[in-house]
Design brief:
11 strands, single chain, 53% strand, mainly beta, seven-stranded mixed sheet, 124 residues
């Protein structure tokens, strides 16, 4: 059992920045990677970024490359998503999730545990 708690969401103007955090607790030893997904009303949940716990290998959705940075602090069991140059289309509920195997990065089905989500709203 893994518990994930996101924080750091909020309201920001276009071009601004936010930093999301996700703290993992419980039995995280078998987690392969952590990912961030987001979901806007009426849209499917989409992959944002992911990072492996062991080597810190990252993967990003093309829509956020160059603007977002995912990182992790293994000692704190925490994953971060630094979001810069935010756009209105970045608006949505952001979820962190734990990936337990080396499945496809962007497939939500490969992530077994999910946080409650944190709202990110980017105004124009």
């Amino acid at each position: 059992q893994v518990q994930l708690v996101e924080s750091g969401g909020g309201l920001v103007q276009s071009g601004g920045s936010l930093r999301l955090s996700c703290v993992a607790s419980g039995n995280t030893f078998n987690n392969y990677a952590m990912g961030w997904f987001r979901q806007a009303p009426g849209k499917e949940r989409e992959f944002v970024a992911a990072i492996t716990w062991d080597r810190g290998v990252t993967n990003y959705a093309t829509s956020v490359k160059g603007r977002f940075t995912i990182s992790r602090d293994n000692a704190k069991r925490t994953v971060y998503l630094q979001m810069n140059s935010l756009k209105p289309e970045d608006t949505g509920v952001y979820y962190c999730a734990a990936k337990t195997s080396a499945s496809i990065w962007g497939d939500p089905a490969g992530y077994r545990y999910w946080g409650q989500g944190t709202q990110v709203t980017v105004s124009s």
